[in-house]
């Protein structure tokens, strides 16, 4: 897969004030136009039950997109004092500069995206209680060592 070009992506404000991207060649948004952050929290954090699990939280994400789910996961882990073991897969990593302004305050998503685009393999980032990996490949082609996830 060829990484996406910035010209294919447009920033779009959502109804909750957060931003998402519109992929112009497909006419689809990465997150709900009703609210990108709200969607991530509702579907990914609350519905998964992670907040009620013991640490570390083990998460597999199929489709990294903007990194919204990862960033909301990290924010919740900090509130819950939980460690995170995360593996994400993304066939077409976006340019790091396309992560919406204000979403990635620590630069974590941008760092993973940059490494995944450069190496076209596995990007890793470890800091404090975070062990993060981003695989630059289709989720159907991901080959993981045994990985028991609390949330997918």
Describe the structure.
- The chain has 152 residues and is α/β, with parallel strands linked by helices.
- 24% of the residues lie in helices and 24% in strands.
- The chain has a four-stranded mixed beta sheet, covered by helices on one side. A three-stranded antiparallel beta sheet has the order 1-2-3, with no helix packed on it.
- Strand 1 and strand 2 (19-23) form a beta hairpin.
- Helix 1 crosses helix 2 (68-80).
- It starts with 8 loop residues before the first strand and ends in a 17-residue tail after the last strand.
Short description:
24% of the residues lie in helices and 24% in strands. It is built from three helices and seven strands, in the order βββαβαβαββ.
Determine the mean pLDDT: 86
Shape: globular
- Beta content: 15-25%
The rounded distance between the terminal residues' Cα atoms is: 23 Å
Structural class: alpha/beta
Kindly report the spatial arrangement of strands forming the biggest sheet. Answer: 4-5-7-6
According to DSSP, the number of beta strands is 7
Radius of gyration: 15 Å
As residue ranges, the low-confidence spans are none
Q: Please describe the biggest sheet, giving its number of strands, its sense, and whether it closes into a barrel.
A: 4 strands, mixed
Q: How many H/I helices?
A: 3
Helix content estimate: 10-25%
Q: What is the N-to-C order of secondary-structure elements (H for helix, E for strand)?
A: EEEHEHEHEE
